[in-house]
Write a structure and sequence with these properties.
The structure holds 2 protein chains of 2 kinds.
Chain A (H helix, E strand, L loop, with lengths): L10 E12 L2 E12 L2 E6 L6 H8 L7 E6 L14 E4 L11 H11 L5 H9 L15 H13 L5 E5 L7 H16 L3 E6 L2 H5 L4 E6 L2 E7 H8 L2 E6 L3 H10 L3 E4 L5 E4 L3 H10 L6 E6 L2 H8 L9
Parallel strand pairs in A: 3-7, 3-8, 5-6, 6-7
Antiparallel strand pairs in A: 1-2, 1-4, 8-9, 10-12, 10-13, 11-12
Helix pairs in contact in A: 2-3, 3-4
Chain B lengths: L1 H16 L1 H30 L11 H4 L3 H22 L2 H8 L3 H35 L11 H26 L3 H20 L1 H7 L3 H8 L7 H25 L3
Helix pairs in contact in B: 1-6, 2-4, 2-6, 4-5, 4-6, 4-7, 4-8, 6-7, 7-8, 7-10, 7-11, 8-9, 10-11
Classes of the chains: A alpha/beta, B mainly alpha.
Chain lengths: 310, 250
Amino acid sequence: MHAARPAQNRRVIDVSHLTKRYGGQTAVNDLTFTVRSGAVTGFLGPNGAGKSTTMRMMLGLTRPDAGATRIDGHTYQQLRYPTRHVGAVLESSAPHRSLTAIHHLRWLTQCSRLPGRRVGEVLEVVGLTGAGRQRVGTFSLGMNQRLALAAALLGDPPILVLDEPANGLDAEGIRWLRELLRAMAAEGRTVLLSSHLMAEMSVLADHLIVIDRGRILADMSMAAFIQRHGQAYVRVRTPDVGRLHDELDRNGAAAWLAPDGSLQVGGMSAAEINRLAARSGLVLDELSTQTGSLEEIFLGLVGGQGGSNG
Amino acid sequence: MAETGAAVHAELTKLRYVRSTFIALLLFVPLSVVVAALDGWSARTAIESHNPLLRADFTPQQAGLDGIQYGQLALIVFGALVVASEYGSGMMRVSLLAVPRRGRLYGAKMVAAGFTATVVAIPVTVASYLATQAALGTHGASIGATGVPAALVGAVFYLTLITLFAAGVAAIARNAVVPLAILIPVVLIGSHLLSLLGATKDLARYFPDQAGMRMVTVGAHDAVTGFAVVLAWTAAALIVGYLRHNRWDS
């Protein structure tokens, strides 16, 4: 439908100074960030960080107390037939339970004057062809999520804004979604998706925006994030843990005993540890350089306060 | 304008395929026509047995408009559900993503509801009148009798307005419970009781259903006043409903 795809790495969504307060609580506090085309941008934060509120404000469902969002220079309300520009999946949105998948997608095509054949096409893309005539109320969580994605894809939009799209999908579904979104970004589309799981982001996102308690903690490429925050350490296994620990301490390395019986060593390279062990006549069963898990980094960044108020 | 037309088209599809709204709309047909026929049949029995319980002011023409008095209950439910079914599910958010201008979505919804009510009310009003006359047999009146066409037209206007009134109240309440809990008792008994009490009789004339009665009374002289009163109620409900819809922060 879109003959010319937008150029890669173009500023597509500009969020500036978005703020939302509920009563005395500030849910979103002066958020400013940019989402670019041709990449998957991950919007990461623990539950209750303000991700959903931010996305609802970006799409005009929730009125911000301050700030604005520009999508290709326009507010969402200014877009003509917006579902042709932005495909969105929001956590709180759902079709009426008594509608069949086909009827739900049909009224959405009518809203944006899309050809009726798109209904069958998107059902096929999300793997719901066989369930098209089923009422949405009978759908499983995963099927509902697939239908929401189908609705987002109806207008073949160059921009996708997805709030926790992997929720309810099984492992196979998550893999499918990952490939779909990667392919979308490779076509030059703009993909913004939120998640509270770092593991999901680490395999999907090119760019990472981390928020907690309504504030931005990090806004950088995934590679830069790992480089900046991921501290390497060396894992060593030896039959004589006590002696190696002593030797490492004597030589200025920081070593600690992990619950699995291995030693984790910081401040000394694997090669140096190997030479030290050889000099001391110690046998090593394992010697490997580790990067701190991204989940640990993320939890460290947000102060380990996952899953606070929803 | 094209976008608004598209939104109306989509709203008509929702009315048809969301089960609750469609069932309410369907019920309007038998509720009106069957009650109209029963009404004519019981009146005929009363006339032929010289039953003194037959109302002194009975006319076959007016009896032909009794069926839709009951049928309107289904349209009130329909009007309320058109709006409430969206607030009750997450559907309103989906709708606002597709049609983000609140006024356009609200307007499209009301146009679709009003249009549907009118299109259904025209044949049902005529069929109800004819059912009553057929049941009355030789006591029945013609559809062309003096004042009848005007009353039938008034009935179609009234049914459309009461549907929109219910939709507006549902938008104010953001649910169906409040409009139904208020409107159905009022229409069935409430303001009718008030109209029997001397002190509140004047007041009751300005209730939407009592004012609506003037629109559907054969040979009424104040049909236009009744129309104006119902129109004012409907406009007020729609405007306040719009303001509430516009302020809805999802």
